[in-house]
């Protein structure tokens, strides 16, 4: 199969230009003005933007809370209609098993033959026995060169103490593994949560009170010092508080290789959403918690100025009716509400409508944050760029489309959307995954199992410094 995309405005992380793209098989073969090529399909992209398919490096398809699991890879077509063609999923190490083994098994049962876009994995070390620490470099050989540790969630099996993080940093560095942290001080949260509950403050809104910015800032700073001690790079996931951002900026300024991301919901939602009447606020319980407007403004500035390097979804498909309601009623509190919100489909819509259209970021910044940098950080060397030799993962974006974001036209398989009613400008009209058309006219037309595992390469972007 060959495809010729004509007359579109190509946007890269550096610039914009009008040119044709010739795709042969699964990759981009030529880019140029007025390409004279025979092709099986010719797509006229005049008046449209042509972007690289997005890389969402923070999704949860296996996250489980009190035995209840989120929606999985069978809903990954939601990413496709949102212009995302590669997902990176966090896989917990199963107790008693190895890191690589845990991902290999999950991959066979829950991703291969199911995923509708390409996928890769991060390891979550949950059982840091000495033999597991020794195993860390093997992740790189297996194509899983990134690992995450949860500083939050005291008492949960996946919570990591400082010794585990420090060992991961030392050992990971030997093989070019990028260590990522969920930075929140678990002890602070635990004390505040107990105090709030004892005072009868149990509504969803108190989730934010139980984990204020200082909780995130302290853990971010601590992780930075651990990384300094190990002389290893560090990547901080879902930065939400300006104080945490400040820690990252300062470390970077000292010459440390510290990078971070934020997520789409922190850019447009806030604590008012958590304070919605009744139990509605539960829809907005995620960690770190939603913040106030001043944090939102700081995050937009940070993504514009490259103080943060990627925007992920942190998609977590727990439904409202059953799963979020674990925190409802007699004897329950905000602490029983599963953390996370569904957001797989709307990352590009949010960045375009509230970033580009409102003048907060340029189109090239969007491309960098949405696709190019997440690919580089995770060692996906054929993803995230419109360039010769790269995978033909391409979004033809119609800037003239207008609509409203709603769970009603969402493929995430969840009964609510945290961005319900938000205006949407533009949309991914056509999406190619390795040269195959998977979205046409905004509708998913691909097939279950069409996505393929992409091995990450070690020494990702964070090692460049
Ligand atoms: O609240 C969130 N983000 N839930 C998903 C798990 C995590 O902490 O990333
Ligand atoms: Zn601990
Ligand atoms: Zn997290
Ligand atoms: Zn997450």
TrEMBL record:
Q: Give the Enzyme Commission number.
A: 3.5.2.2
Top EC class, one word: hydrolase
**Similarity comment:** Belongs to the metallo-dependent hydrolases superfamily. Hydantoinase/dihydropyrimidinase family.
This protein's name: Dihydropyrimidinase
Domain of life, per lineage? Bacteria
Q: Mind telling me how this protein is modified after translation?
A: Carbamylation allows a single lysine to coordinate two divalent metal cations.
A GO-annotated cellular component: cytosol
List UniProt keywords, sorted A-Z.
Hydrolase, Metal-binding
In this record, what's one Pfam family?
Answer: Amidohydro_1
Show where the Amidohydrolase-related domain sits: 49-435
* N6-carboxylysine modified-residue sites: 148
Q: Which SUPFAM superfamilies match?
A: Composite domain of metallo-dependent hydrolases, Metallo-dependent hydrolases
Requisite cofactors: Zn(2+)
Q: In the record, what terms sit under GO molecular function? A: dihydropyrimidinase activity; metal ion binding
Organism field: Sinanaerobacter chloroacetimidivorans
